[in-house]
User: Fold this.
Amino acid sequence: MTVYDGHTVEYSGTSCNPGGINPFHGPAMPGIMEDFYLESYKEHLANSDEIQKISGLDFNLKVVDRLFLAFNDDDEQGLKRMQKPYRQAQSFDARWLTSSEVAQLESRISHNCVGGLFTTGNLSVNTQLYVAALKKSAQRLGAQFVDKNVREIHFAGEKATHVVVENNKIPISSVAVTSGVWTAEILKPIKPALKVRAVKGELLLVEINGPPLPLDITYGLTGLYQFKPGLYWAGGTQSGSLPEPGITAAGREEILANLRRILPGITKIACIEHDAGYRPMAEDSLPVVGKITPYENIFIGTGGGSKGVLLSSGIAKTLAGLINGDSDTGLEFLSPDRFSDE
Assistant:
C-alpha cells in the first residue's frame, strides 16, 4: 500500500480539534448513524493498545467526563433524550444534574443554567500524536508514504488504471480517496460531482486561572476540553471557508465571549494558540463512504465533519473491507451513489 500526501494543504481539520471520540451525539443521532458511531468507537478501543505497541508512541487515549449544559427547557429536553443511549451502553453512563448540583460540581459555571447532563465513557486523544502513531504503525507494517500529492486519476472504461503524481504516471490496482474537503477536486472528472463542502471551525488553546476543571464543559459549539495540565482546547465556531479563510479576530472573540457567558467564574483566559481547520461535510451532514458506481476500483471516505476523529476508524475498516471484496458493509446509505439521483 502506498499513501500519497504532500502535506501542502492549509487548515487541515485533523490538526484542529480537541480529539473527542464521542459516539452518542452528532448528525443522525439518534437515528441511522447510531450503529456506525458505536462501532467506530469500539474500533478505537480494540486497536489502541496495538497501535501504541507497534508505533512506540503514546497518543494519550483516555476516558473523559463531560458536562453538557442546558440553559432553557428545550436544551434540557434535548439532553435528556441523549441520556438514554449512554445508560444502555456498556462502560458509559449519564445522569441529570440540577442547577444546584451543577454549582456544587463546578462553581464557576453560570448560575443561569437550568441543569446539565453529566456523562462518562467518552474518549479523547492527542490528535497530532495519534496521526503520527498511525503513520508509524502503518510504515512498520509495510506501508509506504510519499510526500507528494496525486494530481489526477486516469481511467480505462470503468476502471482506474493510473494516478499522476507530479509528472509520473503510476499504475494502480485500486485507489481510496480520503483527502477531506479536497476529495471532490481529485474526483472532478467523475459524474455526478461529489457534494462535499468545507466547514471551517476555529479553536483556541487557552490557559485559565484558578483550579483545574474537573471535566470537559460544553454548551452547543462552545466548550473547554482538557488537553494538558493547565491547558484547554476552547471551541468553537462553524462557518463557511469564505470570505475569510483561516483564523479570524471575530472567531477568537466569539469563542471567548461564549466561554465567558457559560463560565463567568473564570476571570482570566490567556490565549496560547489560535487554529482553524476545514472539516469536510456533505449536504446531508453524513459521511461519504463506499465504492463509486460504475467504477470497479475507486473508493471514497470523507465527510466526517465534526465527528472525523471518531469516524476515522470505522471509515478505514469499511474501506479496507470493500477493497478486499466485502460488498456487504451495511453502510449503503452512506454510499457516494446517493448523490446520483439529485
